[in-house]
Design goal:
- The chain is elongated and about 90 Å long.
- A hairpin with a 2-residue loop joins strand 1 and strand 2 (about 75-80).
- It is built from 5 helices and 5 strands; from the N terminus they run ααββαααβββ.
- By secondary structure, the chain is α+β, with helices and mostly antiparallel strands.
- About 45% of the residues lie in helices and about 25% in strands.
- The protein has a 5-stranded antiparallel β-sheet.
Length: about 170
């Protein structure tokens, strides 16, 4: 007898031998197989729902009118299309993997260091400030940004939502 057989015998109060043992020996593999198939089917549906939700979230990020950047330890780990355009690129993959400080204007570098110090001392802090950046083409714009801690691919990172506040 395996665990499942013993459970059926105990729950229904059957004897350990006789006709009930034969019934349990016949039925329990069918019940176990049914439960495994149900678990696989349910698991597949759950995984599909997670993938669908993740795809929906990615589409929302890509279609956002604001720049969305995920930064960890100074490196840009994710940027949406609007963010790439804000930094002077048409391709987010050109920006991912670069150091965020390469886009910070010299006038704002000291402020960046102060913000990093604040995040190190208070990792859950929410930052809302303005910063001057230099785009890939060398032009300079002012950004308003909001930065919050997030879980990104199983690691703590910072999500930055930014928009251009330059007077054109």
């Amino acid at each position: 007898f395996d665990f499942f057989d013993n459970t059926i015998i105990t729950v229904f109060g059957f004897e350990d031998d006789g006709i009930f043992e034969l019934i349990v020996d016949f039925i329990s593999p069918l019940v176990e197989l049914t439960m495994m198939l149900w678990a696989l089917w349910t698991g597949k549906k759950i995984i599909q729902a997670i993938h669908d939700e993740e795809g929906h979230y990615k589409r929302l990020l890509q279609l956002s009118p604001e720049a969305i950047i995920v930064e960890k330890e100074g490196e840009i780990r994710y940027i949406n299309e609007r963010g790439a355009k804000l930094l002077g690129s048409n391709n987010p993959s050109e920006i991912v993997g670069t150091e965020i400080c390469q886009f910070i204007h010299d006038d704002s570098m000291e402020m960046l260091m102060a913000l990093r110090k604040k995040v190190r001392s208070s990792p859950n802090s929410i930052l809302n400030d303005k910063i001057k950046i230099k785009r890939k083409d060398g032009s300079i714009i002012d950004l308003q940004f909001l930065s919050t801690p997030i879980d990104f691919m199983g690691q703590t990172a910072r999500e930055i939502i930014a928009w251009d506040i330059s007077i054109h």
